[in-house]
Amino acid sequence: FIQALRAHLNWKETRNPTLSDLHPSLGNSDHARRLINTLRFNEFPSGTGFEGAIHLATKHDLLPIDKCYVRCAETHQLSTKSVSTPSTSTSLRLVICMTKRMSWRLMQAKRLSIDTSFKRVHGWQEFEFESWDIVHMKSVIGARAFTTSQSAQAHFILFQRIFEIASADTGCAVRFQYMHGEGIQTIIADGHKGQGLGLGMYCVYLCKDSIQACRYDTTILLRNLDPYDHLRRFYRLCLAHYKRNILSLCGQIPKDVEIAMLTIASAEPHPDLKGTLKKIKKGGKKAAAWLKDKIEGTKFALPALYQPNSLIPLEIWKASPTTTNGNEQAHRNINRDGVGLTLLGGIMRGFHYDENICASLDLFDAFGINSNDRLSTHAYHAKRALARQGKQY
Predict the structure, then answer these.
(1) Nearest-5° Cα angle at 53, 51 to 54
(2) Which of 34, 100, 309, 326 could form a disulfide with 130 if both were Cys (CB 3.0 to 4.6 A apart)?
């Protein structure tokens, strides 16, 4: 804004201009606010909240498919049950943003990571599907969504709608390795209960009419798997979140118990898993509560951390990313444009960010010009990870 104001006024002074330099009457902030509000209403007649997102989605529906970004702005009714109110209803507001190119990236990815940001848009949570583009050596976004609920049912609707849109864009059905022998091999997340269970519920929905057996265990039909059974076949937990949560207990639990907790996350058989769990259980109230959450509260946690308890093949497990750092970096990059935004502001800045990523990929394809001098190779990532671990420990 300041740059445009300086250009408009042909400003030569060292200090930045103010609105009163444009016109003396704009020195009255109330007068300036009235003018801004009038302009805002003309530009955004439905406001900059959810109604504005609905208006924008309606406009995008009229565009060619290659130009669409805001794919839906919907309200869904969620049913909740409790002892005091056996059946109540709450609403989920959902906005999904993705281009056709993002749909192709999502459907072609084999290893996905998912994460949610809570501070970008005021009153909303921003969800992202992220994957690593091995051709361009860059983290890319497959889908972006804004939601008002973190429940399992809300995430089930979220995954269902995202993959419906991606399938319509590409003409390809979503495919998982353990279901179809190709497609998505792993999805890594931070372990949010509603998010994980909602993903498992979506897999149950995909297999409800299937007569095929699981590729990893041919003795069981896919339609007979429950949500947690599905998660055992592709779901992993971010080790960075896992270690950080353990380190937050430092000083509240014995050091040997802390080390025991860290040893659970492994791709190799544990020499004494039962003994380790027993040691953690006897490590005090905090340690016992931590273990109970991993075994009973978050039922998918242990198989998502310990490969021998999972049904993910070892070679696929080792090929999977171990953290959601790609998502975290994407959130950090886009948050530089601002946090606490209106919904419409978050959508539009997300659009510009996603389009800039596409432009960067096109530049590399056309001229071989990378966004940095140093390529983000696997060797570079491994070297940096080791250096960081050395500093931490």
Answers:
(1) 65
(2) 326
Task: Report the candidate in 257, 297, 298 with the shortest Cα–Cα distance to residue 280.
Answer: 257
Q: Could you tell me the two tokens for 96?
A: 């999904």
Average pLDDT, the chain: 91
Q: Which two tokens stand for residue 392?
A: 């931490």
CA 185 to CA 109: how far, in whole Å? 9
- Written as six digits, the tokens of 352 are 């510009």
Cα–Cα dist 233/312, whole Å: 5
By the 10 Å C-beta count (0-12 exposed, 13-18 middle, 19+ buried), 127 is classed as buried
Query: In this structure, which amino acid lies at residue 343?
Result: L
Alpha helix segments (H runs only) across 127-183 = 152-170, 177-180
Confidence of residue 385 (pLDDT cuts 50, 70, 90): low
pLDDT tens digits, 230-267: 999 999 999 999 999 999 998 899 999 999 999 999 99
Instruction: Tell me the C-alpha distance between 332 and 320, whole Å.
Output: 22
- Mean predicted confidence (pLDDT) in 184-210: 96
Question: Token digits for 365?
Answer: 């394809």
* Sheet of strand 138-147: strand arrangement: 70-80, 88-97, 138-147, 125-133, 111-117, 186-189, 235-237
Q: Which class for 281: exposed (0-12), middle (13-18), buried (19 or more C-beta within 10 A)? A: middle
Please list the residues that pair with 80 across neighbouring strands: 88
Beta strands in 178-296 (DSSP E): 186-189, 235-237
* Ramachandran assignment for 338, one of left (phi > 0), alpha (psi -120 to 50 degrees), beta (any other): left
Q: How far apart are CA 169 and CA 180, in angstroms?
A: 21
Query: Residue 47: which region, alpha, beta or left (left: phi > 0; alpha: psi -120 to 50)?
Result: left
Confidence tier at 337 by pLDDT (50, 70, 90):
confident
pLDDT of residue 299: 92
User: What backbone phi and psi angles, to 5 degrees, belong to 303?
Assistant: -65, -25
The whole-angstrom separation of Cα 198 and Cα 227 is 8
